[in-house]
Model the fold of this input.
Amino acid sequence: MFSSIVNTILLPVRLVFRHETVNKLGLRSMRDERNNMVKKHAKGRLLDIGCGSNQLVRSYGHESVGIDVYDFGGGALLVKDSANLPFDDASFDTVSFVASLNHIPQREATLREAHRLLRPGGRVLITMLSPLVGIIRHHLAWWDEDQHERGMKEGEAMGLSPSFIIEIMEKQGFKLQRRKRFVLGLNNLYIFERRNSSE
Done:
């Protein structure tokens, strides 16, 4: 209880400083909050698209794979296009986009690929800030190499609205099972299930 209160009071510190610094201070970083939320709802073999430093996959296990188009270290599989992945159909039980779907310009094609790669009954887990919170967070994160070194490309966004996420996911064959807010409601976890082609 006390830890939750401290993490709430010190939310600005958690938003502004580097993940490693926040953790050294004994607080929970935003990255760790997101990864823990995804791990609670992941099942079986996981594909983390836009995995960054590959923290989620390394802590989750289950012969999972993290992919990214940019090398942040951490042993991720580097790909040129997240909409064209080198895996067989129905290779994964869970596909996750941890604060990454907004950074993928070809979202619809990537979501079609996620649908192809999921086993029947598989799920997609997305964590995402709203556009307004995303703008504030990205401007506060002065240390984030994702913004300064790699930069924001055309088609990327600071965040995605719930209505946009639900609409684009349903269009690609997924059904929303649950939306859960966390980190004082600033962040969202979306749990989608893969629809069968007969549904």
